[in-house]
Design brief:
Order of helices and strands: EEEEEEEEEEE
Structural class: mainly beta
Strand content: over 45%
Number of strands: 11
Oligomer: single chain
């Protein structure tokens, strides 16, 4: 059974930082492209960042320079370090694993508000 479990979300003030984690089980983590996507209320799910098995990273324009994706294959975990957070970053952040199939986590709420 594949499980992707996100953690680290919460409420933060504008300009603050959060670090999201996603622990994966039931997959061969090292061969999967891992990603973070987000969905704000009333909007479609959008790409935030991905990291492939060779550590090649892709960022959405909105994330460049502020967010950093990384992975720890020994711990089957992918991270998203988010700095300089803005109110428009408020969303549910979902972890994704993709190899032959794509799997999703349940999501972690991130709220950026003063």
């Amino acid at each position: 059974q594949v499980r992707l479990v996100e953690s680290g979300g919460g409420l933060v003030q504008p300009g603050g930082s959060l670090r999201l984690s996603c622990a994966a089980s039931g997959i061969d983590f090292s061969v999967n492209t891992m990603g973070w996507y987000r969905q704000a209320p009333g909007k479609e799910r959008e790409l935030v960042a991905t990291i492939n098995p060779s550590n090649r990273k892709i960022y959405a324009d909105s994330a460049k320079g502020r967010f950093t994706i990384s992975r720890d294959n020994a711990k089957n975990t992918v991270f998203l370090q988010m700095n300089s957070l803005k109110p428009e970053d408020t969303a549910v952040y979902h972890c994704s694993a993709r190899y032959n199939d794509r799997y999703w986590g349940q999501g972690a709420q991130v709220t950026v508000s003063s």
